[in-house]
């Protein structure tokens, strides 16, 4: 039982990182922009949140928890949205290719994050390892009282607030895309921008906003990773990049529906950590176990394309540029 | 964007250029690189307060400071170029092969496997040919799988090839755990270190002579293939418009699968070169992101393999240079990725000014560029 609880918790924590990445990317892709810069954006969010918290904690002997939270949160969102802005400017205004721009953003974001991550580690001195204990603690505080309930406590109530926030974002996004006028307009832009344009929807503004806000949400995945997953430290080992690509996979797995992304993310987390709890696996077979989330995604992708159910298709204009003057 | 105003001329509008002289296009590209170097210089100065000119000098030292360094730079540029060449036909066809990373790794794994199991049992030339063959096949298989699904059901190839990367990475991890040497190190170590069985022999007195030769042949071969053969023409037509291709009687599924087999095979061969010709080991970082970087190489060169040579050298130069400044000025070597990112952003953005021109309010339109 304790083993199961541990696996369940590992799955939720892991899932939350990629859930943020995927939610942001869903919003972005709904506007027709296929942003392959998600890993870079998550990197930017992670390092900005960490840097914000680090300098705040450095400047004051007694950091105020609320300020720790706000500073790191805003820094992460803003840096990630800035990454989205670079992408938007290049693809929407300068009409560059989306895939190439996205991949460059991944290189750039990873470079910036690891560069400053390394610099922060040096600045932190000592063992050469940055640690923002005060801020990280704020992110990891669990619901008092409820987390004490046996079984249900550790399973459902033992996480930091960002786990619940991610679920809330997913639900709000579902309402936004499905139930509001603006959401409908956004989907129209992703499906057929020419028609949307003719209907008077400001296509460019929608694409910019969806991409930047989407990037900001993706960046929170990086923030959650640095603050909770690795407890307020930094290591330049490329884990965020792998998680970022998994987030892109999750978007497909969830067939562009934010609520499906919730259980999809936890399932990915479960599959990723499962090997750890199966006794008697040799190291090599553990590695083969880790391939499951990706194979599952491929299967979903193939099944979707063969069945051609209309509600399960990607936005029709995904990855394609839209210029009013060209047909 | 040009905002539509009914009674007043907008401050700035955009018009597509009908054509642009080659020198002007190159001038814009060169200007973009200069701008990028200025931006990166500002970045370096802002962070470290170091004189950027000194830093660029140190970078040149790092890339070409000694004969040994120059050859490592050449070797790595050849590797990047090889992958770019592999990607060129796929991208020219507008088939988004994001899976080079995986194709390199499976090629590398196949090579390393043969090197371990047949090293010393077969004469090295035979072994080399055998390893080249299996790496080509492994890469081709990795490329064909998404192509078949794309051809049959229209499955999104960008996402499919991306996922194939991770399958390949896990297979590589599996192989590393299997071939671990010494046990417990979690690495394969240098394969056949004493016998050098299956290693590239020296050519023209250079360790990496064979790397250069293979990639040079590929560069010329792919240039001719894309420009002067019927298959190359079919690729161009499919890339421009699938409907036109269909109308002209080109069988799309056949072109997809054939081209991806070639693309994957060359990327697999890059894995062979990386393992047998450079590192003599295999790990998940054998591809090291070059599968992604090479996409940008191929795309920016507009699939002209000779232009790719230039871009590959530029990128590898930056990488090597950054490692040097990292040690010399106590920065960390991720600076290279930052600078690479800035340069690529600028080059990508510059394409806009090659394809379009800006018209300011009040300017006559007569001056057609």
Labels describing this entry:
A: mainly alpha; ABC transporter involved in vitamin B12 uptake, BtuC; 14 helices; B: 369 residues; mainly alpha; 2 domains; two-stranded antiparallel sheet
What does this entry look like structurally?
The complex is a heterodimer of chains A (327) and B (369). With 327 residues, chain A is mainly α. Chain A has helices at 2-30, 38-59, 65-93, 98-124, 133-140, 152-156, 161-179, 181-191, 193-198, 203-229, 239-253, 258-277, 283-289, 292-307. Chain A is built from 14 helices and no strands. Chain B has two domains: 1-50 and 335-369, no CATH class; 51-328, ABC transporter involved in vitamin B12 uptake, BtuC (Orthogonal Bundle), CATH 1.10.3470. Chain B is 70% helix and 3% strand. Chain B is built from 13 helices and two strands, in the order βαααααααααααααβ. In chain B, strands 1-2 form a two-stranded antiparallel sheet. The interface between A and B is large, with 56 and 52 residues.
Give me the count of strands of chain A.
0
Rg over CA atoms of chain B: 23 Å
Largest sheet composition of chain A: none
Portion in beta strands of chain B: under 5%
Total of DSSP H or I helical runs spanning 4+ residues of chain A:
14
Instruction: Kindly estimate the percentage of residues of chain A that lie in beta strands according to DSSP.
Output: under 5%
Largest sheet of chain B: 2 strands, antiparallel
In CATH, what is the class of chain A? Mainly Alpha
Structural class of chain A: mainly alpha
Whole-number average pLDDT of chain A?
A: 85
Give the topology string of chain A: H per helix, E per strand.
Answer: HHHHHHHHHHHHHH
Number of discrete domains of chain B: 2
């Amino acid at each position: 039982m304790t083993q199961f609880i541990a696996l369940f918790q590992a799955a939720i924590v892991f899932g939350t990182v990629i859930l943020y990445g995927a939610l942001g990317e869903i919003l972005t892709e709904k506007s027709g922009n296929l942003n392959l810069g998600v890993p870079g954006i998550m990197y930017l969010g992670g390092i900005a949140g960490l840097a914000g918290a680090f300098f705040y904690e450095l400047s004051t002997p007694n950091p105020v928890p609320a300020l720790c939270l706000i500073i790191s949160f805003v820094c992460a969102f803003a840096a990630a949205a800035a990454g989205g802005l670079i992408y938007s400017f290049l693809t929407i205004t300068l009409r560059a290719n989306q895939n190439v721009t996205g991949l460059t953003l991944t290189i750039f974001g990873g470079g910036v994050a690891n560069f400053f991550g390394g610099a922060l580690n040096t600045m932190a001195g000592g063992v050469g390892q940055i640690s923002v204990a005060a801020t990280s603690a704020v992110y990891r505080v669990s619901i008092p009282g409820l987390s004490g309930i046996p079984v249900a406590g550790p399973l459902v109530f033992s996480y930091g607030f960002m786990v619940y926030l991610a679920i809330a974002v997913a639900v709000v996004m579902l309402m936004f895309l499905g139930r509001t006028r603006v959401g409908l307009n956004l989907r129209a832009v992703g499906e057929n921008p020419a028609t949307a344009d003719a209907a008077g929807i400001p296509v460019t503004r929608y694409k910019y906003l969806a991409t930047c806000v989407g990037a900001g949400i993706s960046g929170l995945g990086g923030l959650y990773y640095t603050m909770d997953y690795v407890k307020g430290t930094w290591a330049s080992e490329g884990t965020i990049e792998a998680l970022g690509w998994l987030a892109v996979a999750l978007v497909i797995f969830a067939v562009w529906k934010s609520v499906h992304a919730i259980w999809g993310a936890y399932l990915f987390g479960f599959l990723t950590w499962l090997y750890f709890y199966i006794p008697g696996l040799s190291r090599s077979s553990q590695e083969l176990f880790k391939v499951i989330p990706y194979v599952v995604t491929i299967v979903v992708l193939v099944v979707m394309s063969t069945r051609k159910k209309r509600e399960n298709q990607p936005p029709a204009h995904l990855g394609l540029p839209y210029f009013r003057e060209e047909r | 964007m040009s905002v539509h105003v009914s009674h007043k001329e907008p401050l700035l509008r955009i018009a597509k250029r009908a054509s642009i002289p080659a020198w002007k296009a190159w001038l814009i590209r060169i200007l973009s690189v200069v701008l990028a170097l200025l931006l990166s210089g500002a970045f370096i100065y802002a962070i470290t307060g170091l004189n950027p000119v000194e830093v660029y000098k140190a970078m040149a030292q790092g890339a070409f400071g000694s004969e040994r360094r120059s050859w490592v730079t050449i070797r790595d540029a050849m590797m990047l170029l090889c992958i770019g060449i592999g990607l060129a036909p796929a991208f020219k066809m507008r088939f988004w092969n994001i899976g080079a990373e995986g194709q390199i790794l499976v090629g590398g794994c196949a090579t390393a496997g043969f090197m371990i199991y047949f090293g010393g049992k077969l004469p090295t030339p035979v072994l080399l040919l055998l390893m080249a063959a299996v790496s080509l096949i492994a890469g081709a298989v990795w490329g064909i799988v998404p192509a078949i699904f794309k051809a049959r059901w229209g499955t999104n190839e960008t996402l499919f090839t991306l996922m194939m990367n991770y399958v390949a990475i896990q297979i590589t991890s599996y192989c590393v755990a299997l071939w671990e040497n010494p046990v417990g190190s979690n690495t394969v170590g240098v394969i056949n270190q004493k016998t050098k069985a299956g290693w590239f022999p020296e050519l023209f007195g250079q360790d990496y002579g064979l790397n250069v030769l293979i990639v040079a042949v590929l560069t010329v071969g792919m240039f001719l293939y894309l420009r002067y053969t019927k298959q190359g023409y079919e690729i161009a037509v499919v890339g421009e418009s699938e409907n036109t291709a269909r109308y002209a009687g080109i069988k799309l599924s056949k072109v997809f699968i054939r081209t991806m087999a070639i693309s994957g095979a060359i990327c697999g061969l890059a894995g062979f070169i990386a393992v047998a010709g450079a590192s003599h080991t295999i790990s998940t970082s054998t591809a090291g992101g070059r599968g992604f970087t090479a996409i940008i190489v191929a795309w920016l060169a507009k699939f002209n393999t000779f232009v790719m040579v230039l871009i590959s050298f530029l990128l590898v130069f930056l990488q090597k240079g950054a490692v040097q400044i990292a040690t010399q000025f106590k920065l960390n070597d991720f600076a290279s990725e930052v600078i690479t990112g800035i340069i690529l952003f600028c080059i990508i953005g510059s394409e806009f000014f090659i394809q379009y021109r800006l018209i300011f309010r009040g300017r006559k339109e007569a001056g057609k560029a």
